[in-house]
Design goal:
- This protein has 17 helices and 19 strands.
- The protein is α+β, with helices and mostly antiparallel strands.
- The protein has a domain of 256 residues: Beta-lactamase.
- The strands form six sheets. It has a six-stranded mixed beta sheet with strand order 3-2-1-6-15-16, with no helix packed on it.
- Helix 10 crosses helix 13.
- It is globular, with a radius of gyration of 26 Å.
- It starts with a helix and ends with a helix.
- It comes from Kytococcus aerolatus.
- GO terms for molecular function: penicillin binding; peptidoglycan L,D-transpeptidase activity.
- This is Cell elongation-specific peptidoglycan D,D-transpeptidase.
- It holds the Pfam family Transpeptidase.
Length: 490
């Protein structure tokens, strides 16, 4: 064999080898990931041809499959509507599954999950198309409905947790969308709806309770600053702290004032107890306290409460963040939940849940049980503890201080008759040029036997500088009260 022929044979051998390796890689190594791609039309056609499991709350469907006419036997519908859209997500012939449990639990809902293999065997032997598993969520129907109604279409989000288990009792994000518009056989209508939703500047597809760039928490972060002071051992709730009318930030000409340019004390003095500073949400006291504690202490305490932690509920949660290496003026602002502090409503609810459960929150979760087509339990969630945030003693002191906020401080609008409520308000600036603010409230009830922890944020309630603004106490606290009432009265 001459040299050109040998060279050609080697080239052909290498090409064949490369083809075999590529085919093996695609068919074996990448097979599962390719199958799970949300835009895999073959998988979507296969899944639309079988009955997808329901997403349930108290046994009632938020998402279900109904018999359909035409080429596909099943149509996905969403009885829960826009109020539960960020819980369910969508299941679309064109755009796949996503936006909520439809995306994260698609393998279970479609019946393809490996955990369902032995339950699929009888269907395979009998030639039946296997049905998907159903998911019973942890949602409390009254709390979910109350959150949707109380937010009343305003931009923002509300999250409620059971601090005893970490179960998510309510999760609402506004603005929302109707998932039914993204399903069905009219592909032109589906495409038009998808284009419209993605072009909307209000971002209705964004789950504000879990995702996004995060909100400045404002004064609800003072709970972290107060916790850091109590944990350091130099402060007690009755420790006197400086609370001047104005506070010049260190190494700066900028003067910090309290909300509405108010005094923190009734008698005109420049000191008050730490508990009173939290009760009236005194900016100057907490800014000074933050500088005294230092950025490292604040950062460590924020981390202990879950800032920076990756969470899945099972939808992924954007990690909250405390700024790295802030200088003294930045530390003062960070202690107030401003500067570059960013968080999600879920994280703020976890902050209250940790205090409610004597310093140790439970991992948040949205899936309670997985059920087969006969609604028999396949699996159920086992509650798990998170890292301890603060000591039992510090948590109890914070609880009592938060009770004072609701009983005689900025959080009076969260009070529930006959129930002791613990809470904290926040009014967070998010636009330095215009002084626009978000309204916050977080808390739990009953304070002595917590059944629900909640966080509410309502976006863009006014301007800080001009006083044309709502506050956490006037806007967010009533929403939180409505949610808590539904749980504690059950």
């Amino acid at each position: 064999m001459n040299r050109p022929v040998r060279s050609l044979a080697w080239v052909i051998t290498l090409l064949l080898g490369s083809l075999l390796v590529a085919a093996t890689w695609i068919q074996v190594v990448q097979a599962e990931s390719l199958r799970e791609r949300p835009d895999n039309r073959r998988t979507m056609l296969e899944e639309f041809g079988r009955q997808r499991g329901d997403i349930l709350v108290d046994g009632e469907p938020l998402a279900t499959s109904v018999p359909a006419e035409g080429d596909l036997p099943w149509l996905r519908t969403y009885p829960g509507g826009p109020g539960s859209a960020h819980v369910t997500g969508y299941f679309s012939m064109i755009y796949g599954s996503g936006g909520g449990l439809e995306g994260t639990e698609s393998a279970l809902l479609s019946g393809r999950d490996d955990s369902l293999f032995y339950r699929r065997l009888p269907d395979l032997f009998m030639g039946r198309e296997p049905a998907g598993a159903s998911i019973e969520t942890t949602l409390h129907p009254g709390a979910q409905a109350a959150a949707e109604k109380a937010l009343d279409g305003r931009r923002g989000a509300a999250v409620a947790l059971d601090p005893r288990t970490g179960a998510i009792l309510a999760m609402v994000s506004n603005p929302s969308y109707d998932p039914t518009r993204l399903t069905g056989n009219d592909l032109t209508a589906v495409q038009e709806a998808w284009t419209e939703l993605n072009a909307d500047p209000s971002q209705p597809l964004l789950n504000r309770a879990l995702r996004g760039n995060g909100y400045p928490p404002g004064s609800v972060f003072k709970l972290v600053t107060a916790a850091a002071a109590l944990e350091a051992g130099d402060h007690q709730p009755d420790t006197e702290v400086a609370a001047p009318h104005t506070y010049r930030l260190p190494n700066s000409s900028r003067e910090l004032r309290n909300f509405g340019n108010k005094e923190c004390t009734d008698d005109g003095s420049d000191t008050q107890s730490l508990a009173d500073a939290l009760r009236v949400s005194c900016n100057t006291a907490f800014a000074r306290l933050g500088v005294e504690l230092g950025a490292e202490q604040l950062s460590e305490t924020a981390s202990a409460f879950g800032f920076g932690q990756e969470l899945s509920v099972p939808m992924s949660v954007t990690p909250s963040r405390f700024p790295q290496d802030p200088d003294d003026p930045q530390t003062a602002l960070s202690a107030l939940g401003q500067f570059e502090v960013r968080t999600t409503p879920l994280q703020v609810a976890l902050l209250s849940a940790a205090i409610a459960r004597e310093g140790q929150a439970m991992e948040p979760h949205l899936v309670d049980q997985v059920l087969d087509e006969d609604l028999d339990v396949i699996s159920e969630h086992n509650p798990r503890e998170m890292e301890r945030a603060v000591s039992h003693e510090t948590a109890r002191e914070l609880r009592d201080m938060m009770v004072g906020v609701v009983e005689s401080g900025t959080g009076r609008a969260a009070a529930i008759e006959g129930v002791q409520v613990a809470g904290k308000t926040g009014t967070a600036e998010y636009d330095d040029a215009d002084g626009r603010v978000h309204a916050w409230f977080t808390g739990f009830a009953p304070a002595d036997d917590p059944q629900v922890a909640v966080a509410v944020v309502v976006e863009g309630v006014g301007r800080f500088a001009t006083g044309e603004t709502g506050t956490g106490g006037s806007v967010a606290a009533p929403v939180a009260r409505s949610i808590m009432e539904e749980v504690v009265s059950r």
